């Protein structure tokens, strides 16, 4: 048997080649390892032996790539909840989301009885040009009935190479239509806005993807033009915004703050991870009153924007305490197309605050969206006591005990971002509170 045909040697070479990009983080990291007198590949002998034994002896065959990816995923599980390994397909979708670009048809759907309802068609996108409209019921993709497909599977089937065709069968007013759509590059906007009577601007930012900071400023300028001048106030809705690119968050804050530290990152590699982002004076709006809306799913870059504007006294925050993600991740790409997302630093606001899970931005005005339909079990208990055959004295004693029980924790709901803004204010107490604050100013 030749040297390279030995399964132990071959497995070691494959593992070393696969992990090389992730283990060697450049000359700086190598210097740190050397300074700490650590052998960077200590333990790989045990790992390689285990890999070989699994390949040779396990009851089912497993590929080296599959096992290595599983091993990397296992390593990230020992770190923090933000570090993770992405296989090539998942990482490709993540990059599309970050860049706001994908090759598809430009529509959004949600599951309803009987199929998938088209809830949004991107203006000027492939689906729009082909004639798909909001309200269509999506039944088939390329002649195959959707049935109980997951939304992820639907997305995979709709997406494809640019210039290729996908045929969508939709139901519209009791008529089935087959709509051929040519896939193309689609830009998914993360920013939308409305002008509210009285000159208040409302801007919703879904996530911080590439260019979203400039898109937000452009949308604000559009609303100012519609208003014929400066807005009387601005509601910046960051609810359920999971974050994204740090530099885009800095762009947003910098527009409303003219000086001082916005955010600082600190990591273990000093110069490689430690950065300070300061406000700059040009094109700063110090006049428009701002209210930021947040909820428990607002995280990362959203918290930087809300927290920084709060620290600077430039905005009031309304809603619920935010998620609490105060860390910075970097992506290390591998030849396979997969990537390692690794936490490399933590960020700190100008007042030194750092966010941890469950300890995020505390709103100036806490307003919850609660499920009002949820029954309070205390009421059922009180009714049962009242209808019982106990004496009045016993009833009063038990009812007093029941009323002293703590109120149940009701589930917080996600807000609706659809429909006319004035209608939404009627059913959205967080948005209503923001408007009331601006009206008072």
Plain-language structure description:
The protein has 441 residues and is α+β, with helices and mostly antiparallel strands. The chain is built from 14 helices and 19 strands. Strands 3, 4, 5, 6, 7 and 8 form a six-stranded antiparallel beta sheet that branches. Strands 10-11-12-15-16-19 form a six-stranded mixed beta sheet, with helices on both faces. Strands 1, 13, 14, 17 and 18 form a five-stranded antiparallel beta sheet that branches. Helix 9 (246-256) runs parallel beside helix 10, helix 11 runs antiparallel to helix 12 (392-403) and helix 13 (421-427) crosses helix 14. It starts with 6 loop residues before the first helix and ends with a helix.
Q: Quick summary of this structure?
A:
This protein has helices at 7-23, 27-35, 44-57, 64-77, 88-99, 126-130, 151-158, 212-227, 246-256, 301-311, 377-387, 392-403, 421-427, 429-440, and strands spanning 84-86, 101-104, 107-112, 115-121, 137-141, 144-145, 165-172, 175-182, 184-187, 191-196, 200-205, 233-237, 261-267, 275-278, 290-294, 315-319, 327-333, 339-349, 365-366. The chain has 441 residues and is an alpha+beta fold.
- Look at the helices and sheets and give the structural class: alpha+beta
Structure annotation, total helices:
14
* Distance N to C terminus: 83 Å
Helicity level? 25-40%
> How much strand content do the residues show?
15-25%
Flag low-confidence runs.
1-35
Largest sheet: 6 strands, antiparallel
User: Average pLDDT, to the nearest integer?
Assistant: 82
- Gyration radius, rounded: 27 Å
Task: Label the overall shape.
Answer: globular
| β-strand number | 19
């Amino acid at each position: 048997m030749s040297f390279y045909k030995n399964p132990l040697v071959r497995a070691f070479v494959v593992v070393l080649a696969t992990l090389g990009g992730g283990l060697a983080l450049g000359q700086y990291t190598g210097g740190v390892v050397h300074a700490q007198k650590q052998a960077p590949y200590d333990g790989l002998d045990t790992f390689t032996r285990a890999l070989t034994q699994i390949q040779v002896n396990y009851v089912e065959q497993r590929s080296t790539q599959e096992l290595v990816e599983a091993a990397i995923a296992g390593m990230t599980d020992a770190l923090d909840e933000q570090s993770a390994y992405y296989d090539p397909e998942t990482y490709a979708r993540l990059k599309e989301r970050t860049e706001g670009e994908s090759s598809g048809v430009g529509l959004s759907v949600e599951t309803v009885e009987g199929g998938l309802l088209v809830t949004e068609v991107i203006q000027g996108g492939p689906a729009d040009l082909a004639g798909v409209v909001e309200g269509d019921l999506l039944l088939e993709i390329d002649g195959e009935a959707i049935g109980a497909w997951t939304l992820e599977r639907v997305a995979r089937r709709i997406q494809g190479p640019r210039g290729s065709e996908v045929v969508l069968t939709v139901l519209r007013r009791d008529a089935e239509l087959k709509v051929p759509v040519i896939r193309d590059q689609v830009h998914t906007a993360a920013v939308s806005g409305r002008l509210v009577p009285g000159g208040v601007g409302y801007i919703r930012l879904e996530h911080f993807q590439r260019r979203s900071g400039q898109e937000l400023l452009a949308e604000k300028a559009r609303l100012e033009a519609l208003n014929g001048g400066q807005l009387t106030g601005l509601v910046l809705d960051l609810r359920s915004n999971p974050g994204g690119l740090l530099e885009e968050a800095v762009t947003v804050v910098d527009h409303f703050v003219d000086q001082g530290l916005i955010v600082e990152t600190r990591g273990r590699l000093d110069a490689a991870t430690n950065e300070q982002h300061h406000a700059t004076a040009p094109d700063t709006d110090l006049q428009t009153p701002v209210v930021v809306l947040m909820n428990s799913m607002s995280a990362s870059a959203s918290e930087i924007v809300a927290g920084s504007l709060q620290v600077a006294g430039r905005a009031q925050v309304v809603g619920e305490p935010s998620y609490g993600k105060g860390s910075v991740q970097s992506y290390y790409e591998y030849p396979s197309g997969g990537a390692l997302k690794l936490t490399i630093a933590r960020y700190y606001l100008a007042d030194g605050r750092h966010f941890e899970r469950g300890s995020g931005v505390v709103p100036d005005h806490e307003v919850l969206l609660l499920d009002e339909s949820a029954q309070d079990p205390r009421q059922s208990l009180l009714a049962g006591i009242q209808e019982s055959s106990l004496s009045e004295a016993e009833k009063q004693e038990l009812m007093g005990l029941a009323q002293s029980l703590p109120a149940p924790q009701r589930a917080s709901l996600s807000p609706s971002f659809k429909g006319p803004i004035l209608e939404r204010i009627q059913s959205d107490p967080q948005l209503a509170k923001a408007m009331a604050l601006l009206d008072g100013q």
